Amino acid sequence: MSPGVSRELSGVPRLDGVLLTAPEALAAAADDFGHTVHLPPAAVLRPGSPDDVAAIVRYAGAHGLQVACRGRGHATGGQAQAPGGIVVESGALAAIHEIGPGAAVVDAGVTWRELTDATLARGLTPPVMTDYLDLSVGGTLSGGGIGGASHRFGAQVDNVLELEVVTGDGVLRPCSLERDPDLFDAVLGGLGQFAIIVRATLRLEPASPVARVYDLAYPSLEAFTADAAALALDGRFDHVQGQADPGAGGGWTWHLAAVSYHAPPAAPDDGVLLGGLRDDRAAARIEDVPYGAFLARIDPIIECQVQAGVWGFPHPWFDLFVPGSAVDAYVGPIMDGLTVDDTGGGPVLLFPLRRDRMTRPFLRLPDGDVCFLFDILRTAPPDRERVEADLAANRRLFEAARAAGGLRYCIGSVPVDAGDWRQHFGRQWAAFERAKRTYDPGHVLTPGQGIFPR
């Protein structure tokens, strides 16, 4: 028996790692970045090998327990919690096994920062990076992984070549588009419902050393979304990302960060890149920064939040995809009534995405050539009434988005029920249910999403 196993968990198989039941380990696993859901497990596995994950899933299935995999704990609504079950800490599996000219083989617990530190040393990079680098590979591949390059390369789940996973019956299985493609497609963006990712082979591409950042300011949401959609479709920039910033006299101003990567002495042609954009935008602020520094651009912001103590506050985030045809009518009234106090100082993001770049069936996006990822990344004071009010507001915003053809990006904090999940997956619901029956018939995996209640 492994160190720290309580008597309640009898018959635990021999493990390479450890199974913990100490109160501090359970408390940590009963929390996440959202700090809105607190459901303690019975034990926490720090695996010493992928075989440990398979063994503990089999054990859980045989003993009526459920299992969730926790990466960096950056979920905001209890998605990676397993009340009364077992939480697998993937961070214990954090080896970078190989970096080749076109791919990297990494454990699921490796963070994107660790990966890019290793790949940039060889002049390579993953095609799509999220803003926050300290997320685990396995975590973002379970949810999707959206970044400023998603209009060109899709989500991070669209840039995976192969996986090694543990299905809900406790079997360690490789899969790819050529080998067991149904499992491969199900797991990527499958919200942890069918398998736990333990290893991934990720596509790499050459990294240009310099990022030229064009900061484009717009007088209105409509002007902003028009240019953002056009840039998403024509692909002239390597990275396109937008956000709303508080205006000096109240209200909001819209900024588009459009980025072109290059290797000096060659340089982007500013006139060509900015040609054809709206005349009413403000003059562009242009800056060249090292590519690695650009990837880490929000680190100073996070450091300030950590020092101020608000990084540990509740984060009832609101995240969804809005059809391009409805974005102005939906987002405009929300922003007219939204204040900095409502967000707690958290950012409001608006990303343009090309629908045809998103290929995984269970990462659900609205129909249409272009859609937008809309995020209100709330920070709330540690006050339960305020958190509940924010969650209720998120629900109202979600219902209005659904009426406009919007769909949730399932990393956020929106109270939902079984009917909401059926609506979310829509024409893919039958396939989603079938995948659950096939790969996790005992409903062992990832109960925190609330998709398949026992």
Structural class: alpha+beta
Total DSSP helices: 15
CATH architecture of one domain: 3-Layer(aba) Sandwich
| Total count of strands | 19
Distance between the termini: 29 Å
Q: Spans of 5+ residues with little confidence (pLDDT < 50)?
A: 1-7
Rounded to the nearest angstrom, the radius of gyration is: 22 Å
Please indicate the percent range of residues in DSSP E strands (runs of 2 or more). Answer: 15-25%
Strand order of the largest sheet: 15-12-14-13-17-18-16-19
Shape: globular
The mean pLDDT is 96
CATH third-level topology of one domain: Vanillyl-alcohol Oxidase, Chain A, domain 3
Helix content: 25-40%
Mind describing the biggest β-sheet? 8 strands, antiparallel
- By CATH reckoning, the class of one domain would read Alpha Beta
CATH superfamily of one domain: FAD-linked oxidases, C-terminal domain
In short:
It contains 15 helices and 19 strands. The chain is globular.
Written description of the protein model:
The chain has helices at 23-29, 50-62, 112-120, 137-143, 150-153, 181-187, 221-234, 270-274, 291-295, 299-308, 327-337, 340-343, 384-403, 418-425, 429-439, and strands spanning 18-20, 43-46, 67-70, 86-89, 96-99, 103-107, 124-125, 160-167, 172-176, 195-203, 205-206, 210-218, 239-246, 252-262, 285-290, 318-323, 348-354, 370-376, 407-408. It is α+β, with helices and mostly antiparallel strands and 454 residues long. Among the domains are: 96-206, Uridine Diphospho-n-acetylenolpyruvylglucosamine Reductase, domain 3, CATH 3.30.465; 210-293 and 300-408, FAD-linked oxidases, C-terminal domain (Vanillyl-alcohol Oxidase, Chain A, domain 3). The strands form four sheets. The chain has an eight-stranded antiparallel β-sheet. A five-stranded antiparallel β-sheet has the order 5-6-10-8-9. It has a four-stranded mixed β-sheet with strand order 1-2-4-3, sandwiched between helices. The two termini are 29 Å apart. Residues 1-7 have low confidence and may be disordered.
